Amino acid sequence: MRALNDRDIWLRCGTLFTPFQRLRDCILHIKEGKIYQILSAADPRDIPDAEIQEELDSTVAPGFIDLHVHGARGRDVMDGTLESLHAMSAALAAHGVTSFLATTLSASDSDTEVALKGFAAHHAKVVDGARPLGIHMEGPYLNPIRKGTHNATYLKPTEPETFRRFIEVSGNAIRKMTVAPEMDRGLKLIREALNRGIQISIGHSDASVEQAREAVNAGVHQATHVFNAMRPFHQREPGILGLVLTDNRVFAELIADGIHVHPVAMRLLWRVKGSDRTILVTDGLSAVDMPDGEYPLGNKKVIVRDGACRDPDGTLAGSTLTLDRAVRNLVEWLDVPLYEAIASASATPARSMKLDNVKGIIHPGADADLVFLDGDLVVQKTMVAGRIVYSRNTDQHKSRGATV
Ligand SMILES: [Zn+2]
After folding, report:
1. Given 14, 153, 286, 393, which is the most exposed site by the fewest CB atoms within 10 A?
2. Tens-digit pLDDT profile for residues 192-241
3. Are residues 31 and 121 located together in one domain of the fold?
């Protein structure tokens, strides 16, 4: 008989999305935190029945990956504390997220360094929920004309020395950076970042179509919360948006909450990008999993009403969206096949970060990061590296965000 050790897990899954294939009644074998093999339940096998955990009522899928999230449960990445990373990690896991990029907001250099140093010091200790993959710096090299909720005081042209210092104090944890490519020396910074393995996402940008194309030709393959905080489309100057929509090399972040982007615009993006180029993100703030009210954002406040976050002047400021809800929204509003919606929250963000084969997919050798969904696509359990880190049955944090 096959030698079993403590770390072997055998899950009999009613429905499993890899996400590209739907498998019925299969057995998922997890060993040492990784997917080891996938067997048909009908195959002759030598696993004792007692070892098999039945998950016949769940849809099992790769855990979700949020590449753009600022906070949750009253905490923010800018706090730079272990408590904040823990709060985010727990909240995200409750929504099926197994890994995320802790996302900064444009701030003074010293406040930015507090966040980066805090991440460097603490991220390795965050093992009981969604795992931080690194940092997404949203700013400060953004165009004030398209600042969204970012404080214009802190936006500036690129500065190579400061940029290198950011990388250093983060302990080389910056994985992605949103940059407006038309800013002074923007392309130079983009080339340096790409050379250092940092993915660049163009956004908060007033770039012309040519400026955006130059950035993509230089190796940029992502765009930040498409439609939001970018020059709008015009038929004679399609701008950054026109380039992003028509250049197949570019992955597009989408905040699918129906507040940031109208469902008709979501459908347009889906038609041109599909599941293999659309990355579902939340842009979630500290108000995620919290009631309506006022929350700090940098040194401003945001007002949350009916789940929408706005500056006092009415500008949209991040969201209270969660990735499980984004997946449901795509399925409900756009009639997207479930496996495609799941891919946009798992395999596609992983591929955009060059983590395919490791994250966002269920196949031998990949990390055993899984989400278990019920028939209404509500998260029942979340597994990270072979360990259950969230179970709806024992959820202590009953909140609006944790329900449909
Ligand atoms: Zn933004």
Report:
1. 393
2. 999 999 999 999 999 999 999 999 999 999 999 999 999 999 999 999 99
3. no
Number of independent structural domains in the chain? 2
Starting at the edge strand that comes first in sequence, how are the strands of the sheet with 300-305 ordered? 293-297, 300-305, 308-310, 316-319
How far CA 32 is from CA of 8, 233, 287, 324, 384, in Å, comes to: 7, 49, 35, 27, 11
Residue type, 240: I
Please tell me the distance between residue 225's alpha carbon and the centre of ligand 1 in angstroms. Answer: 7
What's the pLDDT at 44? 72
Sequence-distant (≥ 6) Cβ neighbours of residue 178 within 8 angstroms? 136, 137, 138, 139, 142, 200, 201, 202, 203, 204, 224
Separation of CA 148 and ligand 1 centre (Å): 6
Are 217 and 227 in contact, with CB atoms under 8 Å apart? no
> Would you call 283 a catalytic residue per the annotation?
yes
Q: Do both 161 and 239 map to the same domain? A: yes
Pull the structure tokens for residue 386: 């072979």
User: Distance, CA 48 to ligand 1 centroid (Å)?
Assistant: 51
Averaged over 238-249, what is the pLDDT?
A: 98
At 50 the three-state DSSP class reads helix
Catalytic residue among 66, 257, 283, 369: 283
Residues 56 and 145 in one domain: no
The length of the chain, given as a count of residues: 404
Give the pairing of strands 379-384 and 387-391: antiparallel
329 SS3 class: helix
* pLDDT at position 149 over 50: yes
**Using 50, 70 and 90 to split pLDDT, how confident is the model at 128?**
very high
Task: Give the model's pLDDT for residue 6.
Answer: 56
Q: How far is the CA of 129 from the centre of ligand 1 (A)?
A: 25
**What is the Å distance from ligand 1's center to 18 Cα?**
31
* Amino acid code (one letter) for 269: L
pTM, rounded to two decimals: 0.95
The average confidence (pLDDT) of the chain is 94
Distance (Å) from CA 146 to ligand 1 centroid: 9
pLDDT computed for residue 398 by the predictor: 54
| Interval between CA 152 and ligand 1 midpoint (Å) | 13
Same domain? 218 vs 323: yes
Q: Do 35 and 168 belong to one domain? A: no
